[in-house]
């Protein structure tokens, strides 16, 4: 697994505001979107393109466009939905599939409650979006879901990760073509499975508490 951690003052600045418990929901949403667009630039570095001819006002030349099949962007509901717009800004012709997952807050096991994805993902570059990589259970299950549908080129984009989650994903995807793009790696998980220092519950901060 390749791991890229953004080391850019603008991303760190935006992350600092995200971490602040007093940051209001609209600002939190806007910042997640902005950070994802910055991370998407790195995440799409290996996106497959094909050459096309283009006629400028001066002469013909050769450029590129996204190859077919176009990439599939997969936000993990709920919190990953907050990253979708930021990602498709850079990949406007990509298609979007959805995975709904909720972590059991006692066992930390992910429960998949929704799925709307193409049956066959062979030859498809897949970009999975989830702001938080904590124990890694949710992301590992999501990536396995894509493998089971034939995907063999998966890039996961997360805003924050714990070292424990990165290691879990590394182990569960050994020998596979997986890239992980991160805004930052935090210290550790606490006893509740939360990233420390983290930013709290990303889904709640984006969309409000459910229970
Ligand atoms: C959060 C987060 C990840 C998961 C990370 O989602 O968005 O999907 O927890 O934890 P893990 O790495 O230990 O699996 P949550 O299950 O809280 O659902 P939500 O997005 O609906 O809030
Ligand atoms: N899910 C979150 O939203 N935040 C964490 O810190 C861990 C899991």
Give a structural overview.
It is a single chain. Helix content is 32%, strand content 31%. The protein has 211 residues and is of the alpha/beta class. It has one domain: Rossmann fold (3-Layer(aba) Sandwich), CATH 3.40.50. Strands 1, 4, 5, 6, 7, 8, 9, 10 and 11 form a nine-stranded mixed beta sheet that branches. The protein has a two-stranded antiparallel ribbon with strand order 2-3. Strands 12-13 form a two-stranded antiparallel sheet. Helix 5 (163-172) links the parallel strand 10 (154-161) and strand 11. Helix 1 runs antiparallel to helix 2. The longest helix has 19 residues, at 25-43. The radius of gyration is 17 Å and the shape is globular. Bound molecules: 1-O-pyrophosphono-5-O-phosphono-alpha-D-ribofuranose (PRP) and uracil (URA). Uracil binds next to helix 6. Uracil (URA) binds at residues 132, 134, 193-195, 198, 201-203.
In short:
The chain is α/β, with parallel strands linked by helices and about 210 residues long. The chain has a single domain, classed as Rossmann fold (3-Layer(aba) Sandwich), CATH 3.40.50.
Which residues sit in consecutive blocks of at least 5 with pLDDT less than 50? none
Rg value: 17 Å
Number of domains: 1
**Terminal residue distance:** 36 Å
